[in-house]
Design goal:
The complex is a heterodimer. By secondary structure, chain A is of the alpha/beta class. Helix content of chain A is 35%, strand content 29%. Chain A is globular and about 30 Å long. The chains are: A alpha/beta, B alpha/beta.
Chain lengths: 105, 315
């Protein structure tokens, strides 16, 4: 998975063509860490169709808030740099993320 | 056919991990099925001060990591999976998961509880957008902002104090005129300059366009409604909800006896009315739901499961 930072977010997500999914997580978020293996499995499943990326919000809090992320875990799908869908909290599970991708692929 | 386990434990929180440790140590083949994260609710707790023998600065994750390690060391298997159904009708219990089906001679239900929702308009739509149930997950987003902590029990007051590390101001909103939290916790909260209180009030509605912008409190004595808006410069604030728990027992409705809230009834040996089915931890009807009582339940359930199996299958 692509590691996002404040520096590369614009280029890798907002200026990017096609589908990019961003896993917003943080060091203090245990549910996020539990979800990560599922996201990695989906990254393999959709390789070549969707770019999978993750952003540690501890290091990019303002950036996360600018994307209207105020709760973790949140998974947002971008298409050509525009937010097209998201799942958060209880809905941020493997099935929820898969549905989100399949609705836009 | 799938492998026949001696014991399947549903839930990998303190009760399940303790049951796993005791069961595996008794040389029973043991499988723990956890749907998302090991440790359950306690891993979202920053400070575990009251678990006897805990190390200094114990956190939920640090305590759980040691429990997992200990249960693994004795040979309990752990898998991640969501249980869809448990067939308890025969001598061999069948546990159906999304991706596989497992069989066991005994089942220990340790599914725990999850945070209760307020149930007001706007709560669901704004979850993750200012409304949250997890201070360790989301506290940092509210650095220098205002937050409201809803509830008056131990969790609400302890998490309110944790949130003062980030927030400019934390207001505890409680439906009664005094806190329910332990006295030592209350004292710390009353002495904390950043903590304020709104008494006799509950949340009537949460409003905002994609992000929390205002909240309406209802005074339970006067019926008066007060709307609190985000400061213009802030644009938003946090609503952290700690209004109790609901047991995760939907799977067992109609199969096991429960109290009116949905907690499973057991005897002192953690046995339900169905032979071979035990329950342990927060999911049980009991007076004190803490890590220390969860691990005790897990140990008892495992020992009783072993006795049950010896009597039922080995003679």
């Amino acid at each position: 998975m692509l590691e996002l930072t404040k520096e590369n977010f614009q280029e890798s997500v907002l200026d990017s063509k096609g589908l990019v999914i961003v896993d917003y997580w943080s060091d203090g978020c245990e549910p996020c860490k539990a979800l990560m293996p599922d996201v990695e499995a989906l990254a393999s499943e959709f390789e070549g169709q969707v770019v999978f990326a993750k952003l540690n919000t501890m290091k990019a809090r303002r950036l996360a808030i600018s994307q209207r992320v105020l709760g973790l875990p949140t998974i947002i799908l971008y298409k050509d740099g525009e937010k097209v869908g998201e799942v958060t909290k209880d809905d941020a599970n493997k099935a929820g993320i898969k549905n989100l991708i399949e609705a836009h692929i | 056919m799938s492998k026949l386990y001696d014991v399947i434990i549903i839930g990998g929180g303190p009760a399940g991990l303790s049951a796993g440790l005791y069961a595996a140590r008794a040389k029973m083949s043991t499988l723990i099925i956890e749907k998302d994260r090991n440790g359950g609710q306690i891993v979202t707790t920053e400070d575990v001060a009251n678990y006897p023998g805990g190390i200094e600065e114990e956190t939920g994750p640090s305590l759980v990591a040691r429990m997992v390690e200990q249960s693994d060391r004795f040979g309990a298997e752990r898998i991640k999976g969501k249980v869809l159904d448990v067939d308890m009708s025969g001598d061999i219990k069948i546990v159906k998961c999304e991706e596989a089906t497992y069989e066991a001679k005994a089942v220990i239900i340790a599914t725990g509880a999850s945070p209760r929702k307020i149930g007001c308009p706007g709560e669901k739509e704004l979850t993750g957008k200012g409304v949250t149930y997890c201070a360790t997950c989301d506290g940092a987003f509210f650095t220098d902002l205002e937050v409201f902590a809803i509830g008056g029990g131990d969790t609400a007051v302890e998490e309110a104090m944790f949130l003062t590390k980030f927030a400019r101001k934390v207001t505890i909103v409680h439906r009664r005129d005094e806190l329910r939290a332990a006295k030592s916790i209350q004292e710390k909260a009353f002495n904390n300059d950043k903590i304020d209180f709104i008494w006799n009030s509950e949340v009537a509605e949460i409003k905002g366009d994609g992000i929390v912008e205002s909240v309406v409190f209802k005074n339970r004595e006067t019926g008066e409604l007060t709307e609190h808006f985000a400061h213009e410069d802030d644009g938003t604030f946090g609503i952290f909800v700690f209004v109790g728990y609901i047991p995760q027992t939907d799977l067992f409705k109609g199969k096991l006896e429960m109290d009116k809230t949905g907690y499973i009834k057991t005897d002192e040996e953690m046995a339900t009315a169905i032979p071979g089915i035990f329950a342990a931890g927060d999911v049980r009807q009991k007076s004190l739901r803490q890590v220390v009582t969860a691990v005790a339940d897990g140990a008892i359930a495992a020992v009783q499961a072993e006795k049950y199996i010896d009597n039922k299958f080995e003679h």
